[in-house]
Sequence to fold (147 residues):
Amino acid sequence: MTATITQPNLVPLRSGMYEMPDSIDGTPRLYGQRCTSCGEIFTTTHREYCAYCGKQTMESRRLGTIGIVQTFTIVHQELKGSLMETPYVIARVQLTDDRVQIQTVLCDVEPNDVTIGMQVEICLKQVDEDEDKQIVVSFFFRPATRS
Ligand SMILES: [Zn+2]
Fold:
């Protein structure tokens, strides 16, 4: 008989944005779309027509997990209802494989250590716990440890 380790349930803060890994240490995969006619990639998930060539040839795609910081801002003002503790960094990250940009919060880095051109990777972090003791998670990007 094999012992089964029961993982606490992971619940996304916002559903439908990424494929959930088996554990919080796993790698989430953001959903996107690719036009099979012209090859353009989008960070959207429900686009019917390609914004570049106009064809109705969109397929869903899991986006890459590594990117480069294009620009960023340090947030000092706490927003009402926000789960984020200030100061934190919001960055525009260009995904290396897909050449599309996404806006994300950076984690595991001091705001003053963030630089343009920094390589970052997607990860999951607990942001809350719900009433059923399930772990509420969100995706973030952190300085890259894999490449
Ligand atoms: Zn297209």
